[in-house]
């Protein structure tokens, strides 16, 4: 089943509309969608290693734009939906402490979490809810998301054939490692 799914994603990654799909997934993941853009970026860069940096640029721009939407969600909707729930359960003080912590360490939170497999939408919505400086948020998002996607693209550009051979021979291992990385990201988020 994994091999068929991998073949399907590779075929989609080689299609003429793949860049649009990559942008859509990167945008949505930064604000509300659960699947990270790596599921498209990696196969697309493997299918076209010479386009890896262009794909990373698409992924970065769309992710940062999606981050702005995530920020807006946290900024505008948080008070209407989440704050009343927090108050019912008596977590108003805990939320105030969270806002203070985010104001003090928000830049570092954005920089660190933007590079990890932690779903970026959690960072974007939290930044908006904490009323973190929007300009600084966007700059940090551009730096971290760009660093992450360009690092992946660079590795795939130079080692694409070796990576593809490794993935095709050890697909189950690769998908398991990716799943573990995502879970580890959530665990790290809980610990911070």
Number of E-type strands: 0
Radius of gyration: 18 Å
Overall pLDDT level: 80
State which percent range the strand residues make up: under 5%
| Biggest β-sheet description | none
Q: What structural class do you assign from the helix and strand content?
A: mainly alpha
N-C termini distance: 36 Å
> Any idea what the shape is?
elongated
Instruction: Give the helix level as a range of percent.
Output: over 70%
Overview of the structural elements:
This protein has 192 residues and is mainly alpha-helical. It has eight helices and no strands. It has helices spanning 2-13, 18-29, 38-47, 52-88, 92-115, 120-129, 134-169, 171-191. Helix 2 packs antiparallel against helix 3 (38-47) and helix 5 crosses helix 6. The longest helix is centred in the middle third of the chain and has 37 residues, at 52-88. The radius of gyration is 18 Å and the shape is elongated. The model has no long low-confidence stretch (mean pLDDT 80).
Short description:
The protein is mainly alpha-helical. It contains eight helices and no strands.
Keywords:
192 residues, mainly alpha, 8 helices
């Amino acid at each position: 089943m994994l091999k068929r799914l991998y073949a399907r994603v590779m075929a989609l990654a080689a299609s003429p509309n793949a860049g649009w799909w990559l942008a859509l997934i990167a945008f949505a993941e930064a604000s509300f969608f659960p699947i990270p853009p790596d599921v498209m970026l990696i196969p697309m860069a493997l299918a076209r290693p010479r386009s890896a940096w262009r794909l990373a640029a698409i992924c970065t721009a769309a992710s940062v734009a999606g981050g702005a939407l995530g920020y807006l969600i946290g900024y505008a909707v948080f008070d209407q939906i989440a704050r009343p729930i927090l108050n019912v359960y008596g977590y108003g003080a805990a939320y105030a402490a969270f806002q203070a912590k985010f104001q003090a360490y928000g830049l570092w939170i954005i920089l660190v979490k933007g590079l990890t497999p932690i779903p970026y939408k959690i960072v974007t919505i939290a930044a908006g809810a904490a009323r973190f400086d929007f300009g600084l948020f966007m700059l940090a998002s551009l730096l971290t998301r760009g660093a992450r996607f360009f690092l992946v693209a660079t590795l795939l550009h130079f080692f694409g054939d070796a990576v593809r051979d490794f993935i095709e021979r050890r697909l189950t291992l690769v998908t398991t490692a990716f799943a573990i990385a995502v879970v580890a990201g959530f665990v790290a988020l809980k610990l911070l």
